Fold this sequence. Notes:
By secondary structure, chain A is an alpha+beta fold. Chain A has one domain: L-fuculose-1-phosphate Aldolase (3-Layer(aba) Sandwich). Chain A is 40% helix and 13% strand. In chain A, a hairpin with a 4-residue loop joins strand 1 and strand 2 (43-46). In chain A, helix 1 (8-23) runs parallel beside helix 8 (185-208), helix 2 (82-91) packs parallel to helix 6 and helix 3 crosses helix 8. The first copy, chain A, is globular, with a radius of gyration of 18 Å. Chain A starts with 7 loop residues before the first helix and ends in a 16-residue tail after the last helix. The relative contact order of chain A is 0.16. The interface between A and D is medium-sized, with 30 and 34 residues. Chains A, B, C, D: This is L-ribulose-5-phosphate 4-epimerase. Chains A, B, C, D: One of its GO terms (molecular function) is aldehyde-lyase activity.
Amino acid sequence: MSESLSFGDLRREVLAANLRIPEAGLATLTWGNVSGVDRDAGVFVIKPSGVSYADLSAEDLVVVSLEDGRVVEGHLKPSTDTETHRCLYRAFPHIGGVTHTHSTHAVAFAQARRPIPVLGTTHADTFNGPVPVTEDLTAEQCARDYEYNTGQVIVALLEGDARRAEEVPGALVSRHGPFTWGATATASLENAIVCEAVAEMALHTLALYAPGGHPEPPRHLLDRHFTRKHGPDAYYGNPAPAAVR
Amino acid sequence: MSESLSFGDLRREVLAANLRIPEAGLATLTWGNVSGVDRDAGVFVIKPSGVSYADLSAEDLVVVSLEDGRVVEGHLKPSTDTETHRCLYRAFPHIGGVTHTHSTHAVAFAQARRPIPVLGTTHADTFNGPVPVTEDLTAEQCARDYEYNTGQVIVALLEGDARRAEEVPGALVSRHGPFTWGATATASLENAIVCEAVAEMALHTLALYAPGGHPEPPRHLLDRHFTRKHGPDAYYGNPAPAAVR
Amino acid sequence: MSESLSFGDLRREVLAANLRIPEAGLATLTWGNVSGVDRDAGVFVIKPSGVSYADLSAEDLVVVSLEDGRVVEGHLKPSTDTETHRCLYRAFPHIGGVTHTHSTHAVAFAQARRPIPVLGTTHADTFNGPVPVTEDLTAEQCARDYEYNTGQVIVALLEGDARRAEEVPGALVSRHGPFTWGATATASLENAIVCEAVAEMALHTLALYAPGGHPEPPRHLLDRHFTRKHGPDAYYGNPAPAAVR
Amino acid sequence: MSESLSFGDLRREVLAANLRIPEAGLATLTWGNVSGVDRDAGVFVIKPSGVSYADLSAEDLVVVSLEDGRVVEGHLKPSTDTETHRCLYRAFPHIGGVTHTHSTHAVAFAQARRPIPVLGTTHADTFNGPVPVTEDLTAEQCARDYEYNTGQVIVALLEGDARRAEEVPGALVSRHGPFTWGATATASLENAIVCEAVAEMALHTLALYAPGGHPEPPRHLLDRHFTRKHGPDAYYGNPAPAAVR
């Protein structure tokens, strides 16, 4: 990448996170996109529309204004989902990255309009509650500013509750698929990976339930797992190695 | 490839599209084939019968007459499905490529004789309606010109409606599997990839539906997605990089 | 491989076929084995027991007597399934190779004691009828010569009908898994790949069937597909490239 | 690895076993961990917490005291699951390795609180009985020493019966996932691979059962398979090649 390119570190992180979409088996063709934000500069960096992962370079990423959605830098059109990302960044000031995929099992829950239920610790490690499903967009919401409105139905679902958005860092857009977010572009991508994994596990678990009874997992177990990894008492993990530069 | 080989560009595109069949996980053994047409020359280029993808080269591809199905160029027999491709090229003058696979989930719908329903935007991005299933071929249709008749039951399904064939670029042959088409060989292959992806998503979605109720997705949502990518108001994607030469 | 090693060509083919088991996703750990026979020499060559595919070489393969099952050549113990292979070679004089795997979906049918039904052309291209399931072995059959008796329940199933064994080149051993065979080691391995593929397709097809009705595919369609590839009127495929030497 | 590093052979084995978790498709992100014990030295070696497999080296592994769980050697925090491993080593003196994963199908059984039933020989080759599910941990067990208590519910399940732990080398922690063990770190990892494979096969088998009837596999068949591979009359396998050095 040219040294003079602006937002170099952010571009590198967003590029790496986008390339993990196909690596993690979340992508068909060019579907899926990750963005990362620079709040001080008032911009976010996002994948261009319809470019294959194999061809993607940091220069191809598009820099977009948080304020009005205009392209600040870039020779390509940004992802068609750009306005959804922008809406989420504006509603949730604590997030640093957003990921959208059409991963198979998360899409199946979105299409069936079923939240992904909390069935075990794998889910609770990342999502402190079910991954919810939005309302269908109305004809009016589809006719105009469709992509921004896609963000709005997610925000409505969380009632603008930033804490809830932090504890459940993702949602399923009805009949469409998952959007996830996180403190960074990388974190949003990893939440997309977890969302797909727990969707697949939930699909199989539901198939295995004995008819009649499947009590919820005990709340104390789920809390334990979420707080092992998140918040002031977290004790999971080690300091990351020196960041990608 | 020898410089003097005819239809060099088309051969290269058809070869590349064929090699994407196993890459995309759509193939078992040598199953599956892609062709591309040169309408001016009145021929199409297709995979030879029963050759493994690892061994396939542009020279092995077979050039076949659109008019009568005879081999115009090639040292190998063309795919046994060649006459099905020829039938589709003749019925739908707007198409430039055809793909046939035995991809797992699309075959399951074909075997169950269920159209792949439109359950969300992933489907609507590519197929503006369910992927339909043909009638069973009759004993007469099987006894003689079986492969050409396989094309005929597809054409019958679409009632020769070229616009419908353009908006729903694929069909499931009953008890057999998917045929997809597109403006180019590459486009037909990508439609085969989408067909398999939406079949898998649909299988899981149907398993997740609550008994009793699964209303259709709202039409305005599906239309929005199809027209984002197709037709005069499309705004998805970027210009392709310089074509393979 | 040392030039002086006996049965060099057969060893090379059997090695290559064994290595395709993990490549084709049919293996967990060291499970699965392929053998090939030399009828003139009265021996077959088979994978050693419990050796990982990554470590396997042609020298490790074991040469076993068709007559009495004794090791003719080799520094390792042959597969524990060797006696099953030997039983099949003795019962079906037309076969040249045998493959056994624990591939996921074929095992599921074996465990459920359901034959893999003929639901479409993918199946009919290779198996001219359902892939049948054997009887459970009796306590006596388990107590003594267990592995040879495993072959015997397969032979019993086909009633020693060599033609049926040729047209349906495989069977599921009850609660165990698939054995397939063919004219060569390679053919038996490819039949194992098809067996797994059609088992997976069948599993999904059965899940998609509307309750109440799923008529059989028409016999004329299935016949057409089997005879396209097998017997005097076959027209599928091209001559193989020069054999591996 | 530095020559002077202590427990070098054990570290190398534990590292190799950990790297097989993602290779075998058992891992999402950094989930999963393998440990191996040195009983004479009174320590075990385990994966550090939250480190990605791609970055893992033998130096990163953590040496932990069997006696009190303190880190004896290492610059990183050990896996959060370390105390569960320690509990198992203390309860079952015959085991040399422990593996924990969140593999998809084993987790589905754990989440549905269903033991993985013995449906065929693939299961019986490794597990001489169903893979059982623990009780849910109580609020008290979650509040304090959660991870050690996770080991305790496994031990309770096996009633401290060392022989049973040897014949069924794994268990599902309710709503959580599988823990497996074995004579070595490698063996525990291979048991985790088998646990996932048989869980997937069981899921599909249960879907294929005809309503009403699915008699158990005959005991003599299952015994035959378990004793082919385990105990004094085992005849499966060959001596391992020279150990990794």
